[in-house]
Specification:
This protein is an alpha+beta fold and 394 residues long. The chain is built from 13 helices and 10 strands. A 7-stranded antiparallel beta sheet has the order 6-4-3-2-1-5-10, with helices on both faces. Strand 8 and strand 9 form a beta hairpin. It is elongated, with a radius of gyration of 26 Å. It starts with a helix and ends with a helix.
Length: 394
């Protein structure tokens, strides 16, 4: 799969350079059409949100191109390092539209086209912006999945081209919803991808999204454009002149993973609770269980701290998951392997219990929503902390 994507990426880079040289002096005719193309979700995690791109079609110039801001290259020598640090380099590529439609056909993803109601001057302004942005020296940009992605780029260009003539309607917003809640609608919460994202990202995702912020998702770009208006020829008119369904597949349903995180975490938690019960009844302590729990939560906490303070991810800071995945647990895990732990460790357990109480309040007040798959694990932590506080006091 990665090899296939890399080959396509290299092909598009070469094609994009060639097309730039051909099109940099072209002017769209009055018969041209500029459309926003929205595709339904795919199977891969990064495809779950759908996709937005821009189509330029001009029968006079015999152009039918798609401008795609969602191109990235797995094969780059520092791709994974940069991705981890939050420097996700994406680029704008243009290529024949039929290639995009063929790919969606193969993946059985629906595709809808919204033709923008623009004057010839506005079309050419739009076209020139895309041409400048797709030039090799301008094509790359730092991708942000929530604030600068394939869906927000067309939104921003439309605003730039139309200016005060655009009447943006927010009728598609029917209730107060956070960025995290919008995300969780697209990815089933009982998947490893959803669990990882919800642990890694902080409370910025939990503020109520503005109508404009909804538009990081292709579905809402589609809805917003349908509601929006434009001043044209001295009167208010629809921004979208026509909507076409190009591919009519059923939308892929977001499903839980076959081996779901909740089932795995529940099994581990029940086992840990059983061991804790046996330890309590037999007046002993399973040091291996304490080491595993504290080492694992500590490593997770170190990752949270790293993402928060040492990366460029815009939504990683202020992550209250650190209250259960507490980085110092990594050090404490080794103290808990000793036959007799230091006295301060029992007081440390009281601190961890207090953290869980605070975390519950944060969750209930929706300051930050946690993944529901963590509930059994948090119960295990609370019970084990209470047991250790009692045991280590003896």
């Amino acid at each position: 799969m990665i090899k296939k994507i890399t080959t396509i990426f290299l092909f598009l880079c070469c094609l994009n350079t060639l097309l730039s040289q051909v099109n940099n002096t072209l002017k769209l005719s009055d018969y041209s059409k500029i459309s926003i193309i929205t595709s339904g979700p795919g199977e891969a995690l990064y495809e779950k949100f759908g996709h937005t791109a821009i189509r330029i079609k001009d029968p006079v110039l015999q152009l039918d191109l798609i401008y795609n801001y969602g191109i990235f290259d797995f094969s780059g020598p520092s791709f994974y390092t940069d991705f981890t640090k939050g420097y996700m380099k994406y680029k704008l590529a243009k290529y024949p539209f039929y290639l995009s439609l063929k790919s969606a056909q193969q993946d059985e993803r629906w595709v809808k086209e919204q033709i923008l109601n623009l004057t010839e001057t506005q079309k050419n302004t739009f076209f020139n912006i895309l041409e400048i942005n797709s030039a090799p020296e301008n094509a790359s940009y730092l991708y942000d999945p929530y604030f600068d992605n394939c869906a927000t780029k067309p939104r921003d260009i439309i605003k730039k081209v139309l200016g005060e003539k655009l009447i943006f309607k927010d009728d598609f917003v029917t209730k107060n919803t956070s960025l995290r809640q919008l995300m969780n609608k697209e990815i089933h919460q009982n998947t490893w991808g959803s669990l990882g994202i919800n642990i890694a990202l902080g409370s910025r995702l939990d503020k109520i999204a503005t109508a404009s912020e909804y538009l990081y998702l292709p579905d809402y770009i589609f809805e917003a454009l349908n509601y929006s208006k434009i001043f044209k020829d001295g009167k208010e008119d629809n921004l979208i002149s026509k909507t076409n369904i190009l591919l009519d597949f059923e939308e892929k349903e977001s499903k839980k993973d076959p081996i779901s995180p909740f089932s795995v975490i529940l099994t581990i938690s029940l086992f840990g609770l059983f061991i804790t019960y046996k330890d309590y009844k037999n007046s002993k302590r399973s040091k291996w269980l304490d080491f595993v729990l504290f080492f694992t939560s500590g490593i997770t906490g170190v990752l949270i701290v790293y993402l928060w303070f040492f990366t460029n991810h815009s939504t990683a800071p202020n992550n209250f998951n650190f209250l259960w995945a507490f980085a110092p647990n990594l050090i404490v895990s080794f103290f808990l392997t000793q036959k007799k732990s230091p006295k301060w460790v029992s007081k440390y357990m009281i601190l961890l219990l207090a953290f869980l109480v605070i975390l519950s309040i944060i969750w209930i007040t929706k300051t930050q929503l946690l993944s529901i798959t963590l509930i059994p694990l948090l119960i295990l932590f609370a019970v084990r902390y209470w047991f250790l506080q009692k045991t280590l006091n003896r």
